[in-house]
Amino acid sequence: MKVRGLWWKLLGVLLILYSLLAGLIIPLGSGVVAVDPMVARAGSPLELRVEGYNSHFDSEGQRAWLRLNATAVIEAKQLQASDRRHLAATFQIPSSLPGRDTINSANLILYNPVDGHSVLPSAIVIRGNAMEGSAAWNDDLLEASGASGFHFPFRNILKETIRNTYFHVQIWFALLFICLISAINSVRFLRSKKPLFDYKAEAFAATGLVWACLGMCTGILWAGNTWGSYWSFDVKQNMTAIAILMYLAYFILRQSIADKDVARRFSAAYNIFAFLMLIPLLYIIPRMTDSLHPGSGGNPAMGSEDMDNRMRMVFYPAIIGWTLLGMWISNVYWRHLRLKSHFEEEFE
Amino acid sequence: MIMESKKKHVVSVSVLLFLMFWSQPIWAQSGGQDFFQAIGKMYVVIAVIAVLFIGLMGYLFSLDKRISKLENLKSDGEEF
């Protein structure tokens, strides 16, 4: 028994297995989940109770700061860790604030040698009494230094679901390659009129459609649990829905023309058009307006805010793995299509 | 023949189930991490992976059905 092109099929499976295991096992870095209270008054002491995630507040060298802006920072006078996830930080908020604003939002910054830095943006609102002066504030913040150990970054709201980068985002990238192969085969069919290329184009388009449906279902789940709504009519969500309908139309077109040769030529031409539309739908239009997705409305896609080098070490193999798996399934599919037409001719 | 392929199915399904259950202690072992806590929304990741798995199996199933159709055709020459 011999499997054709075994090595790349095995490679695909191994890469997916690697992304699955690495994506699930590598822990998140430390972060701050919540603080209490969320409002403080200038000039009064503040005991801030901090709840951490994957943190080690009880380790040596724990420090905490409240930061209004780059030059206005105060450090906690006293720290009391009840366990590695709970910390009580006592601050003395100065009676004068650096700005004239009576409502100031401050970030909480924590540091210890085990976790490195963790930040809760806009952790607390400091209400001032219109006294201006930055004397009590300084810019004495510890220089950033990394945490020990191998972690994925902790992001508030996302938390552990940042791992879905390898289980949702990757499938959309793989889909682009699968649909590209489908379009290339349509071009080859139109140039050579060999049915083999038509089988390939159909099979890859079918896999692309399945990949898109998987990407959409996983996206709906992820959105419902992070953005608060399963379908928020985000521009990228709407455009992917259109793209899926476009590829559904490809299969309806194939079925609806009785003459086989005409059907093949029409659907090949349509398939090229569908791929050319896919790129603006998925990658250009969402960037032109505001979107919840990263890479839109001026956010850099794959920027350092969304992904670091540790995540790339899992993300890129995941894309290659899912592309290869898609190629494998399409490979089985077009061989089936070729056999089917072979039989059809035999019995006619 | 049919019995053999059924046997193979049973084996592969049980291997999958074994892998799924075996992987659980790995999460538990990462000790000291707040790994499976609901505040970390880990269940979302698991649900997403489950959707991927179910979708792939559904696609595999439909391919299998198509190929079985061809095989039946080969043996008795009906259909089409």
Write the layout of secondary structure elements.
The complex is a heterodimer of chains A (348) and B (80).
Chain A: H1 6-25, E1 31-36, E2 39-41, E3 45-53, E4 63-69, E5 72-75, E6 78-83, E7 86-92, E8 103-112, E9 116-127, H2 169-192, H3 195-226, H4 235-256, H5 260-288, H6 309-347
Parallel strand pairs in A: 2-9
Antiparallel strand pairs in A: 1-3, 3-7, 4-5, 4-8, 6-7, 8-9
Chain B: H1 2-29, H2 42-76
Uncertain regions of chain A: pLDDT < 50 for 5+ in a row?
none
Q: Strand-and-helix sequence of chain B, N→C? A: HH
Radius of gyration of chain A: 27 Å
As a whole number of angstroms, the C-alpha radius of gyration of chain B is 20 Å
- Major sheet attributes of chain B: none
- Coarse morphology of chain A: elongated
Number of domains of chain A: 2
What general outline of chain B do the C-alpha atoms trace? elongated
Q: Please tally the helical runs of chain A, counting DSSP H or I stretches of 4 or more residues.
A: 6
Based on the structure, what is the oligomeric state of the protein chains? heterodimer
Strand residue percentage of chain B:
under 5%
Percent of residues in helices of chain B comes to over 70%
Q: Give the helix proportion of chain A (percent range).
A: 40-55%
State the gist of this model.
The complex is a heterodimer of chains A (348) and B (80). Chain A has 348 residues and is an alpha+beta fold.
Notes on the structure:
The complex is a heterodimer of chains A (348) and B (80). Chain A is α+β, with helices and mostly antiparallel strands and 348 residues long. Chain A has 2 domains: 6-18 and 159-347, no CATH class; 31-127, Immunoglobulins (Immunoglobulin-like, Sandwich), CATH 2.60.40.10. Chain A contains 6 helices and 9 strands. Chain A has helices at residues 6-25, 169-192, 195-226, 235-256, 260-288, 309-347, and strands at 31-36, 39-41, 45-53, 63-69, 72-75, 78-83, 86-92, 103-112, 116-127. In chain A, a hairpin with a 2-residue loop joins strand 4 and strand 5. In chain A, helix 2 (169-192) packs antiparallel against helix 3 and helix 4 (235-256) packs antiparallel against helix 5. The radius of gyration of chain A is 27 Å and the shape is elongated. The model of chain A has no long low-confidence stretch (mean pLDDT 88). Helices cover 79% and strands 0% of the residues of chain B. The radius of gyration of chain B is 20 Å and the shape is elongated. At the A-B interface, helix 1, helix 3 and helix 6 of A face helix 1 and helix 2 of B.
